[in-house]
Specification:
The structure is a homodimer. Chain A is mostly helical. Chain A folds into two domains: about 5-110, Multidrug-efflux Transporter Regulator, Chain: A, Domain 2, CATH 1.10.1660; about 125-155, no CATH class. Chain A has helices at about 10-15, 20-30, 45-60, 65-70, 85-115, 125-130, and strands at about 5, 35, 40-45. In chain A, strand 2 (about 35) and strand 3 form a beta hairpin. At the A-B interface, helix 3, helix 5 and helix 6 of A face helix 3, helix 5 and helix 6 of B. Chain B binds a DNA duplex through helix 2.
DNA sequence: TCTTGACCTCAACTTAACTTGAGGAATTAT
DNA sequence: ATAATTCCTCAAGTTAAGTTGAGGTCAAGA
């Protein structure tokens, strides 16, 4: 459908750089919710380009799809998000980014001060204590210290 | 073997907070290389606590196991790493950390300036252009734009 | 009109990073 | 000495995030 205000999945793929299969997959995860034509083809809003761009950026930051989905629930479902919608949502998201970045910077600095320190008493080594269960989330050994799959805490 | 200078896998697990199974798995990936007793049990050096702590921290930064393995190859294999070994290696690693952090900060700032901008012309939206194939590595759609599995570039 | 390219669904495969379990041997504790 | 732990290997299961392919429908250009 060239020249319409809606996009076919192929057009959306081209605009975002995503594979068509990835977009379908994202739909199953609730990241986009296209309408269907009579014949069952997906029609996307132009705003979905932005939604998917956001997904890509958030992934770059290491957020999982379910975390991103949780974040995006703050955008309206039925109408195209307005500038105000995006602003409110991104203000909230920015907190998570800041926290993530701060965590990484702190970790880098600990690494800096500690990794070359040669201390063999691991008791008080900052690096040794940096990888606490509290910090660790999203990567590393999955079922660590009672951190079981059902511990559902989105973001 | 309590009171020896080597550690059993269980002791190492306790010291690092890792599951025993995870340590065995890491061995298959070359992250640790324990020796064996006559009867076949693994014996770890105390320095392996540090190696594994490093692994945990690096994972926290979003590095994959093979990337970490590549990085750790700069440590000596047979003797326990000295302070100098760790320093040299971590100096090198720090470059990657800095790059990663800078990338995230830049992305956050773009997000900041862009996500609420309301521009519908995606052509020149910074956010839209931020998720380029160049930036994207490690997460997101895997086989994107010729970024095929055989493109072996460690770290 | 007809055919070629875009779409559709659904099931199965892939990779990373581990975990779980079965079946058995070696240590440690009582 | 015997029971309870810990350890071993190897195969198979798990989750996330997609990809691939088969079999079939729909639409847009020559």
């Amino acid at each position: 459908m060239k020249g319409t205000d809606t996009l076919s999945i192929g057009e959306l793929a081209e605009r975002t750089g995503l594979a068509v299969s990835a977009i379908r997959f994202y739909e199953t995860k609730g990241l986009v919710a296209p309408v269907r034509t009579e014949s069952g083809q997906r029609r996307f809003m132009r705003a979905d380009i932005r939604r998917l761009s956001f997904v890509l950026v958030a992934q770059e930051f290491g957020f999982s799809i379910s975390e991103i989905a949780a974040q995006m629930e703050k955008l309206p479902d039925n109408r195209a998000p307005t500038k105000a919608d995006w602003t409110r949502m991104s203000r909230d998201f920015r907190k998570h980014l800041d926290a993530k970045i701060e965590g990484l910077v702190a970790l880098r600095d600990k690494l800096d001060g500690c990794i070359g320190c040669g201390c063999l008493s691991m008791k008080k080594c900052q690096l040794y204590n940096a990888g606490d269960a509290a910090n660790r989330h999203g990567r590393g050994p999955r079922y660590l210290m009672g951190d079981r799959p059902d511990a559902s805490d989105e973001l």
